[in-house]
């Protein structure tokens, strides 16, 4: 039994079959998925490259699960690279070895090997899976997870409408959400990007396409269009670097990225191929079409931000969005015109279908380093007796730079107003431990540090043997490793130490956190209690938003701080990191050993897996 995870996949299949039949007496069989991960030619935006497919698809298949299920995901690595698969936002309650973080929770899955992830679907809602090995997310290893809520979970739909018929239509739509994965996509494979970044000392902030469910095109805009969309901040970056414009790809030129972020570090832009930042070659791939019928009245979408770097504005022409869940958990619904989506985010939205027609689904980058937008289509077919001749012209809510398209567009999703519909517990008013993390750029423009020192992902991938979960360093505190005790409350204070500081989408593995406060200026207080005394208006300890990732405040000229609080209930080795792939690769991570006093006993088959 101990060895059944080893070996190549055909023998494993036999072993798994045996295992399943021998456990047939068990009442509940696990919900089982098999993911064949391959490295193949594909052309999601009309231009071919080698990339990652899961079961021959991109994005990977949706894992449909019912809350309470035991889940088994068998990964067969048929790529020429090591890999791991992380289940983003899944708390992995009592199964920290199935979290998919190389060096922290498991050894890497080598080519022609397999690995079985096992976890319990304790949560409900919208999640996703993705590679956690180096830059493989950018190569296409991701797919949606839907966990259908159990019957006893109350939903907030009667806050959208109290009309019984409408409520019925809404509930029906929400039972069957359509995943819509948004991603940024690059032609250059991640294994080429990494060494080129190191050789040039420049962070590669430029992508080729925005994709909807893996479909899109390469649009090349005229210099005039690009110039007309530039923000004041973007013009300022150009001015500092003595440049006049963004590149034909709509990007801040590579040299200027480094000038802005790490002006004292020598760079070598000559090693950067011109297609990375500059040359735009148009190509056309398929367009994603979401089809619905007017008679449904409502449509539910699970929006998933599978970005390597972008944050986008998202909207659907002529349609409001009712956001009813964030990162999988119900909230008091917000009716908005648009929502900003960043790396790792999930927004579950309901859309009223009132008119047949075709409406643009828009995503536009609001990241400072690149202008880019793309559209998919919402096609609403007409019901019997309806006519589309009277359909009004469609009205966009956002422009190609993500800004509101007209003064009428006033409602973007508001995180401060995000109210959890039924939080599992109240946030504790005081904490037991505080960790102040000084975020800064350390060296090159991609060398972001979560706390002063870099923890490059390569350190975890290659050097962390034994794996932290298997051999914890309980009392290690070396700038990049912290520890906590079970059933304590922990504050993570993210302080910007260098300027300019972009917003960082910080994701914690293993549990959700509350965003209890943020502010501008230094954070001179020894504890969050003291901070709350001094600036109570900067805190919300009553009903703060709860998520598995929050974006830290950007900073231009003075420091900012962001406080996240969480309850340690799930001992294990968890990564806390920026979800921007370049920043993660560059070192923006912290190892959290949660609950060192109640460390889990790792099953032999995971300990021995190699
Ligand atoms: C994975 O690949 C194996 C061998 O090619 C095949 O038998 C199996 O059906 C594949 N599984 C899926 C889910 O595609
Ligand atoms: C692949 O994983 C194995 C096992 O963890 C490790 O020894 C090897 O160095 C890894 N290879 C690469 C290129 O990371
Ligand atoms: C921009 O030009 C000014 C004046 O010529 C010069 O002092 C500065 O070093 C230049 N900056 C860069 C990044 O080249
Ligand atoms: C609009 O009307 C045309 C002609 O009747 C029909 O073919 C088409 O499907 C309709 N479009 C929608 C979105 O209902
Ligand atoms: C704004 O809303 C008003 C009132 O509904 C409408 O008349 C006007 O055309 C809208 N303007 C734009 C730019 O959409
Ligand atoms: C921790 O940070 C300090 C200050 O930046 C540095 O001197 C030290 O080398 C770091 N330690 C480790 C283990 O990275
Ligand atoms: C953060 O790094 C500093 C060194 O710059 C170190 O003194 C401090 O202990 C670290 N904080 C944590 C929480 O590890
Ligand atoms: C950790 O603490 C939580 C919250 O009190 C508790 O439910 C859980 O059983 C504890 N875990 C262990 C392994 O003791
Ligand atoms: Cu970051």
UniProtKB/TrEMBL annotation:
Regions annotated as coiled coil: none
Region (Disordered): 379-398
Residue ranges of domain Plastocyanin-like in the record: 37-151, 178-376, 472-594
Ranges of Polar residues composition bias in the record: 379-392
InterPro entries on file: Cu-oxidase-like_N, Cu-oxidase_2nd, Cu-oxidase_C, Cu-oxidase_fam, Cu_oxidase_CS, Cu_oxidase_Cu_BS, Cupredoxin
Signal peptide extent: 1-25
Gene Ontology terms for molecular function: copper ion binding; oxidoreductase activity
Family in the record: Belongs to the multicopper oxidase family.
Record PANTHER family: LACCASE-RELATED, MULTI-COPPER OXIDASE
Protein name, per record: Multicopper oxidase-domain-containing protein
The species this protein was found in: Lasiosphaeris hirsuta
Species lineage: Eukaryota, Fungi, Dikarya, Ascomycota, Pezizomycotina
